Give the backbone structure.
Amino acid sequence: MLELISEHACHGGVQRFYRHHSAAIGLPMRFSVFLPPQVEQGKVPALFYLAGLTCNEETFMTKAGAQRVAAQLGMMLIAPDTSPRGANVPGETDNWDLGVGAGFYVDATTAPWSQHYRMYSYILELYELVAREFPVQADSIGIAGHSMGGHGALVMALRNPERFKSVSAFAPVCAPSQCPWGVKAFTAYLGSDQANWQQYDASALMARSKTPFPSGILIDQGLSDKFLTDQLFPEAFEAACQQADQPLELRRHAGYDHSYYFISTFIEAHLQFHARQLKQ
């Protein structure tokens, strides 16, 4: 059952925030939805957006400035939270890059995380809920994300191309098996056997694929991003795309960092990219 927490008129449409009980997580979860004015005439394409470390279901909707363009394009926006809340796992609030706000969009398999930290399954659950409860064109749904959420978007799309017809990312964690954030999270959530990590590593998944998105993937990366060298590894994903014959537009921007100033600058291009793909 959906509980409407709040709603706000926005660019001719409405911004809403919801709570519901998640079967995948086993706890209440929150998500946000922007409904463009075109829903008054019928179903519309939709874009899922997965946020990064420390963020929640409000971050994208309040910081990216995406609703204006989504209203023009007639595109619904959906943003889930980034982790369970209230799981009461020992130590889940001790570090900003593990636990609360840092679910990494994986299904944890090791105790004590495995009971509630099942964000991969949650995104699929939310996908079905949105398709059922909102005026969405079921064959026109894309996915995007930032940083940890960029990792999540790439992985969700590569593992579920029948669900997500388009994918883009801002400064994604492209090879989490090789970076400190990913190694820390994957060890905690998935255990020390690195063979189990590969199902959640976008570069590894892409390297085993063959042109999964023929119309292309879009990634924007700021060259003044302090995490670029040690955490993000876009060159690994770029090489995997070349191996997989996957068209990739990887745009590198001098002077831009990892923040929502960067995202808000290029969000219009991403929404237009998805609108073109979803209309095909």
In short: The longest helix spans residues 260-279. The radius of gyration is 17 Å.
